[in-house]
Design brief:
The complex is a heterodimer. Chain A is an alpha/beta fold. Chain A has helices at residues 16-25, 47-51, 67-72, 90-99, 133-138, 142-149, 174-191, and strands spanning 2-6, 32-35, 76-82, 106-109, 112-115, 122-128, 160-166. Classes of the chains: A alpha/beta, B alpha/beta.
Chain lengths: 192, 186
């Protein structure tokens, strides 16, 4: 299982990382953690990376070179992030842009898309939102859309998808919601 | 009042760059004052652009009467670079929440003079595949950004599908379409 962490350690996100770690501690998974805040990962697709995109060897930059083999070896992909205005943080979008390139995420055969991550049978997104559920739905939850819907075309056709979200982190009733969030997180991550 | 063109593509000799050049040419031919912001050429940082850069971009945006975004659609959404521009330049201290005016006031002020917002974007895959994928970029613009613009502000979505299998003729036809549609807007 590959766990991609794109939470924001500088803000209060309701103990997102702790909750994920607690849920994983009770599960028996072989976890490979990619913490996008560690190292010097650059979320913007580079000129060299884009030029090499269709070359057959697209992962030319050192900061993404090992992401390819790691996600290809995964049976489950779990994304953890704090939602932003555009959906997911640019850091995580950069991971998606730069890692799921031809040869890793998909293959282009005569211009047609073929699945690349056929080994991935479980997808999960764990998101913390400042906004309420209805507000997030009204802007069509870009993070969820990309991670669980767009990605559907490149993973195993019968891949199971789960979305675990905590809404309204600023509200006064957040404590109960946090307990429910932690319980669901536990259930989903253990059951992956 | 001028039009702000935000261009985001890592490769300077890409079709995306040709589209941006067409946008600038059309605006010039239509006599519209315009300013091009090339995020890659300027070395903009999607995570930490620095306070002075953000301030300059905010001032430009606040004075703009039109906003044209030129970018490739990747994974149905904005490239990380452009998403980072939106997050840093358009979002103030708090996330814009349409139901709570005070949270979106900062963003609304930046967009207060806009008469139109247009996105000119290229997609590798077909319109059908994009529909299945969920078109996150279109939804963000239509439901996230456009409602914060003045009520009279128009929104235009100009998409070039199937760029992975496109011929030179297709691309020229798209540039002509961009030219026609943008003239109508300005």
């Amino acid at each position: 299982m590959v766990l991609v962490l794109a939470d924001d350690p500088t803000v209060d996100d309701g103990g997102l990382r702790r909750a994920v770690e607690a849920a994983l501690a009770s599960a028996d998974h072989d976890v490979d953690v990619i913490d996008l805040h560690e190292g010097d990962f650059n979320p913007a697709m580079t000129t060299a990376g884009r030029r090499a995109y269709h070359s057959g060897k697209p992962l030319v930059e050192p900061d993404v070179a090992d992401f390819g083999p790691r996600v290809l070896a995964a049976e489950a992909l779990v994304f953890v992030y704090r939602a932003t205005w555009t959906g997911m943080p640019p850091l995580l979008k950069g991971f998606v842009d730069r890692t799921f390139v031809p040869g890793v995420g998909f293959h282009l055969v005569d211009g047609k898309l073929q699945r690349g991550l056929v080994g991935v049978r479980r997808l999960a997104a764990v998101a913390v939102h400042d906004r309420s559920r209805s507000e997030v739905l009204s802007v069509r939850d870009g993070g969820r859309r990309i991670l669980l819907r767009t990605m559907r075309l490149i993973v195993h056709p019968r891949c199971r998808r789960r979305y675990v979200a905590l809404y309204n982190t600023r509200s006064e009733r957040a404590a109960a919601a946090r307990r429910r969030f932690a319980a669901k997180l536990d259930r989903v991550l253990v059951g992956l | 009042m001028s039009t702000l063109v935000v261009f985001c593509h890592p490769v300077p000799d890409s079709f995306g760059a040709a589209v941006a050049a067409q946008v600038v040419e059309t605006l010039g031919a239509a006599g519209a004052e315009h300013q091009l912001l090339d995020l890659y050429a300027d070395g903009f940082s999607p995570v930490d652009a620095g306070a002075s850069t953000v301030k300059t971009h905010r001032e430009t945006l606040a004075g703009a009467s039109g906003l044209v975004l030129v970018y490739p659609t990747w994974w149905s959404g904005l490239p990380a670079m452009l998403a980072g521009w939106f997050e840093q330049v358009m979002v103030g201290d708090s996330l814009p929440r349409p139901g709570r005016p005070q949270t979106s006031a900062a963003t609304r002020d930046l967009l207060a003079n806009l008469r139109y917002v247009a996105a000119v974007t290229t997609h590798g895959s077909s319109k059908f595949v994009n529909a299945v994928q969920g078109e996150a970029g279109l939804h963000f613009l239509r439901h996230g950004v456009h409602p914060l613009c003045p009520a009279t502000c128009k929104m235009k979505w100009l998409a070039f599908y199937n760029s992975d299998r496109s011929s030179m003729a297709d691309r020229r036809a798209f540039l002509e379409r961009v030219d026609r549609r943008l003239r109508r807007l300005t």
